[in-house]
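Many introductory courses stop at the sequence. We go one step further.
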Amino acid sequence: MISEKTTQILPECVALRRLLHENAELSFEEYKTTEILMERLSAISGLTFYRPCRTGVIATLQGAFPGPVIAIRADIDALPITEENDLPFRSKNPGAMHACGHDGHTAMLLAAAKILAGEADKLHGTVKFIFQHAEELPPGGAEELVKAGVLADVDEVYGLHLSSLYPTGHFGIRPGALTSATDRFDIVIKGKGGHSAYPEGCIDPIVIAGQVITSLQTLVSRQISATEPAVVSICQLSAGTAYNIIPGEVKITGSTRTFNPKTREVLPKKMEAIVKGACDAYGASYEFTFSLGYASVINDEKLTAWARNLVVSTFGEERVFAIGPLMPGEDFAAMSAIRPGFFVELGAGTAPDCNVPHHNARYRMDEDALAYGIEYFCQLVRTRLSV
């Protein structure tokens, strides 16, 4: 199940994961992380590497024999969260925390690269190890790398995400659409401010906003099929400067999650109609902006079937299970949109306190999952680049 090579390198992997966790950096600002990776990569014989963008690294391993080019991607950025865990390696950067497992992704991929570099004489093809910046912040680092031509010579691309939702060492697999399309909306409701004692002389944007927020929730429950996954979430609300002043405007910000491209297209039109109707009824005006984020990650059907067999042969049938569509977004979509790709969820939620949701200030990772990720990456390359 877990090879001796993986077992031997695991302490080094754990140590790197903790170092990255302690030095968490936000999207597009991963300078220290990039320096750490370049230092580690320079010590691995057989790898070449470069920086296509300001942050992030691409490392290449050329096999001894000709063959396809495959890419494996790990994301390196953290989230804008101040960590609340009492850990010896807790983030020392206030407002930056690896609360989504990216430190684990990066450490696993580097460990796999080190192992595979010692096996280049057996490989028929080339591996690109993509240490990608800025997964958490649209437009995302994946799109930048695609525009930089990183995948121009790649035949297949693979990714992995550690998940606190599933038992440690278990692989969640889904063909086709895996993650949702994640988009943002911004609404400004413009009324007429004034004294709270004289609301009749005002156009209260807070009252209008309350109706808009309530009505937006009916889009999913009453205007989209019950069999189709979709979410409309209000995440930010801003208004007012004092307890006795009716403000002049309210700002509402949130996100939508969809899988059906038609729903993704029509949803903002329905949302704006609700905003316009409420504002017209009270004599207010509004601004409505809908910004497209990441598309859905689409798992190639053939690669998914192949990868499932790989996981079964490596870890056993009991370690594989089917999962439904995932509402979180993932900018790996930019890569799987142009190359056949496969993205898998690896459980890391068994150890105590490790089932806390991602993007939470108390998120913890079950480090026992790292061995499974290293082994999976290595077996993927060994098998895909065999004769």
